[in-house]
Automatic annotation (TrEMBL):
Domain annotation HTH marR-type: ranges: 11-145
SUPFAM superfamilies reported for this sequence: Winged helix' DNA-binding domain
Single Gene Ontology BP annotation: response to stress
Protein name as catalogued: MarR family transcriptional regulator
Pfam families from the UniProt entry: MarR_2
GO terms, molecular function: DNA-binding transcription factor activity
Taxonomic placement: Bacteria, Bacillati, Actinomycetota, Actinomycetes, Pseudonocardiales
Transmembrane regions: none
Protein source organism: Actinophytocola xanthii
Length: 159
């Protein structure tokens, strides 16, 4: 059953629908990641791995990128290290600092996530049609400022 469009829908419904769509995609991602062997991966882990990035980062940089305290970032990095997604190594530029780097398992998680997101988008295309998905994406690009594309969702939610 397709929901009817209501031009007089209350304003609060839009953020709830956007969040529900986001949640559906993230839940679908993690269900498939679990089927592919990443059973302990959680949504915050994806944000944290993106914050680490391909060149690595210090725990302080991870905290800043995620918008959380250094302690919270440290706990997340500890968990990711236990799961084998990151490792701490000496920073070649400064022996006093530790650099957090993605491991092959962390890179695998990100690569699988990208492929799964492509599949999930494909499901939306099958349900809504390519034009409607493309229109939705273009419309969101028009109303969402580029600066809003950040990794600090966990910190923003108060986690």
């Amino acid at each position: 059953m397709v929901n009817q469009v209501d031009d007089n829908a209350p304003g609060y419904e839009l953020p709830l629908l956007l969040f529900a769509g986001f949640r559906a995609l993230i839940d679908g991602l993690h269900a498939e990641l679990a089927r592919q062997g990443h059973t302990e991966a959680r949504p915050v882990h994806g944000f944290a791995l993106q914050a680490v990035g391909p060149d690595g980062a210090t725990a302080t940089e991870v905290a800043r990128r995620l918008g959380v305290s250094k302690q919270a970032a440290g706990k997340t990095v500890d968990r990711l290290e236990r799961l084998g997604y990151v490792e701490r190594v000496e920073d070649r530029g400064d022996a006093r600092r530790k650099l957090v780097r993605l491991t092959p398992r962390g890179i695998d998680l990100l690569a699988r996530s990208a492929a799964i997101f492509d599949e999930l988008r494909g499901e939306w295309v099958r349900v809504l049609g390519a034009g409607r998905v493309r229109d939705l994406e273009q419309a969101l690009r028009r109303v969402v400022p580029p600066a809003a594309m950040r990794l600090d969702a966990a910190g923003w939610f108060g986690a």
